[in-house]
Design a protein that fits this description.
The protein has 423 residues and is of the alpha/beta class. The protein is globular. The strands form 5 sheets. Strands 7-5-2-9-1-10-14-18-19 form a 9-stranded mixed beta sheet, sandwiched between helices. Strands 13, 15, 16 and 17 form a 4-stranded mixed beta sheet that branches. Strands 3-4 form a two-stranded antiparallel ribbon. Strand 15 and strand 16 form a beta hairpin. The chain binds inosinic acid. Inosinic acid binds next to helix 4.
Length: 423
């Protein structure tokens, strides 16, 4: 059975949580493979809203086993807070939620360094979520990060924390002119969360491989979006992990195998944080999209920047991720707009570009070239089949499929689980 990978095809916030939740119904195992508590996956079950930052969205399906993969950077405090929310909601996660021993741990000093790095950059700041993501991945690649497995040996953990703090405090005090982190408090933090996390830390690779051997359905869940990828996104305005589909194998521990790769694509476009956004709308239409689509960050509450769908970015994403199909989301938000625009190429000076430029200066300066579609002046949120959709909506979907040369397989027309059309 091919592995099902679900990734964000844009700059994040495409509505992955809902798609993962819907697809999880038929899964036995769901693995989150990258990022950390910077993500915010919103899922509605009936009237109840769940916002998951770290725990795979599959946890809301009681027969699904869930793994936080080695590619994730885990904030212990956020993890325990999330467990608390699940407990209060009556969701049982005992014996079905595991943390890979290879997962790196975020400490309070990572968040402090994140904040200092951002404020030192001034106008050139990335606009991070402040969750310590960049510094934690920097430690991983610098080979002095602390992993979940380290929490199980308090003696060696103490030495690792001491070594880390020596350098971190040097940077905080001497470079950023900031207060150092207290060794004592950091050790207390480590001890407290080592005992809280211990029951969940388990060798997950054997579990994954046994599921693969038995040909059980596995879903690998991405966070953020391909355009925020550290290598293939709009660098340096990116996150520090690999939201692209290639990251799914490394971050989960599954060997590259034949996969169904679903790219979640919002029917328009949003971005949080700084960086190029050619189709951004700084006008009433942008405001209307934000209002109708409730476009405020699930993690930070920041208003999201809004704009028209960008097919240059979507095509790039389809190719970089090897998407096999699309889950088109928030189509209902576009109901009521008289006309809808889609960017088909970029203009830069006298050139027409059909590809995202690697140069951030060029990417910031391109002008979008638009194709205009007639809007559909009736709600689509009650449509239950493709044939129910207005002709104008079908035309919009057909255009996306033709431009990407891949099918739109799922169409989300509202927040609820049942507001989804399988085409
Ligand atoms: P970081 O991941 O907190 O370091 O933030 C780096 C960039 O990624 C910033 O522009 C953030 O706004 C953006 N970002 C991180 N997580 C998300 C997300 O879940 N949705 C949308 N943008 C995100």
């Amino acid at each position: 059975m091919p592995v099902q990978i679900v990734i964000g095809a844009q700059w994040g916030d495409e509505g992955k949580g809902k798609i993962i939740d819907v697809l999880s119904e038929k899964m036995d195992l769901v693995i989150r493979y990258q990022g950390g508590a910077n993500a915010g996956h919103t899922v509605y079950v009936g009237d109840k809203k769940y916002v998951l930052h770290l725990i795979p969205s599959g946890i809301l399906r009681e027969n699904v086993q869930c793994i936080i993969g080695g590619g994730v950077v885990l904030d212990p405090q956020a993890f325990i807070e999330e467990l608390d929310i699940l407990s209060k909601a009556g969701i049982n996660y005992t014996d079905r939620l595991f943390i890979s021993p290879r997962t790196h741990i975020i400490f309070p000093y990572h968040k402090k360094l994140d904040a200092q790095s951002e404020s030192s950059k001034g106008k050139k700041s990335i606009g991070t979520t402040g969750r310590g993501i960049g510094p934690a991945y920097a430690d991983k690649y610098g080979r002095h990060g602390i992993r979940a497995i380290d929490l199980l040996n308090l003696d060696s953990l103490k030495i690792k924390i001491e070594d880390n703090l020596k350098f971190k405090n040097f940077v905080l005090e001497k470079f950023y002119n900031a207060e150092p982190e207290s060794l004592e408090k950091t050790l207390d933090f480590a001890k407290e969360y080592a005992s809280k996390l211990k029951p969940y830390i388990k060798e997950t690779l054997s579990l994954i491989h046994s599921y693969q051997k038995e040909d059980k359905p596995i879903l690998v869940e991405g966070a953020q979006g391909a355009l925020l990828d550290i290598d293939y996104g709009s660098f340096p305005y990116v996150t520090s992990s690999h939201p692209v589909a290639g990251g799914a194998f490394i971050g989960s521990g599954i060997a590259p195998v034949k996969s169904e790769i679903t790219g979640v694509l919002k029917a328009y476009l949003t971005r949080v944080g700084n960086g190029p956004f050619p189709t951004e709308l700084d006008d009433q239409i942008g405001e209307d999209l934000r209002k109708c689509g409730h476009e405020y960050g699930a993690t930070t509450g920041r208003p999201r920047r809004c704009g028209w769908l960008d097919m240059v970015a979507a095509r790039y994403s389809a190719q970089v991720n090897g998407l096999t199909n699309i889950a088109l989301t928030k189509l209902d938000v576009l109901s009521g707009f008289d006309t809808i625009k889609v960017c088909t190429s970029y203009k830069y000076k006298h050139e027409e570009l059909e590809w995202i430029p690697a140069d951030e200066n060029i990417f910031s300066a391109v002008e979008p070239v638009y194709k205009t579609f007639k809007g559909w002046n009736r709600p689509v949120d009650t449509c239950t089949s493709f044939s129910d959709l207005p002709d104008e909506t079908k035309e919009y979907i057909a255009f996306i499929e033709e431009s990407l040369e891949i099918p739109v397989k799922y169409i989300s027309v509202g927040q609820r689980r049942d507001q989804i059309i399988q085409k």
